[in-house]
Amino acid sequence: MLQRKSLAQEVADLIKQDIQVGVYSVNEKLPSEPELMKKFGVGRSSVREAVKYLEQSGYVNVVQGVGTHVISTTGHQSLVSTLQQADLTELLEVRQFLETKIVEKAALNRNEDQLERMHVVLQKRNQFAKESRPEETVKADVEFHTILAESCGNRLLYELYKVVSVHLAQFFTERYLETETFIRSQKLHEDLFVQIKAQNPVKALKIIKQIIGTV
């Protein structure tokens, strides 16, 4: 069954086309959010999601307070294409390989800002799950794991995970039409956060394996 593209995805595709044909060159700054909203006739949330997708796909780099700059005219095309063609087993295996190493390193390298953001997004995950809002719950769940990847201290692992996370989010959104699974795994995620904060990679590794096993 074909999935209709979201508004954000359509905007991302249009900006990507502009980048590929040279409307925006490498190192050039993209228009501001209000300008993009006006250009495409969409709301702020759609623009932000579109830019996030482009960042995860390797086309732009977003720096808070500075803006969004084009960094590539091709992005992670070969990797993205391969992921799009991968089956579920392959995707989950890649997730397992990445997350087990990420969690071990995050427990040793995380900083206070990252811990705070993890804590906030975990609260959102729990709230959305209890309110039976599956799409928002998935976004919060993926955001938590993406912050973990950022916290690991290995930029390449982080960039790889950002690309994979796009496809994980799509899979979760299509698979989980309710939030019971996320409610059941909330305690595991909170326990994982505790061990990351305590800088205990051994216990954190055990917990992430349990989390992956619940999918």
TrEMBL record:
InterPro entries reported in the protein's UniProt record: GntR_C, TF_FadR/GntR_C, Tscrpt_reg_HTH_GntR, WH-like_DNA-bd_sf, WH_DNA-bd_sf
Domain HTH gntR-type, residue spans: 5-73
Sections of the chain in a coiled coil: 98-125
Organism encoding this protein: Xanthocytophaga flava
Database matches in SUPFAM superfamilies: GntR ligand-binding domain-like, Winged helix' DNA-binding domain
Protein's UniProt keywords contain Transcription regulation: yes
Protein name: FadR/GntR family transcriptional regulator
Keywords: Coiled coil, DNA-binding, Transcription, Transcription regulation
Record GO terms (molecular function): DNA binding; DNA-binding transcription factor activity
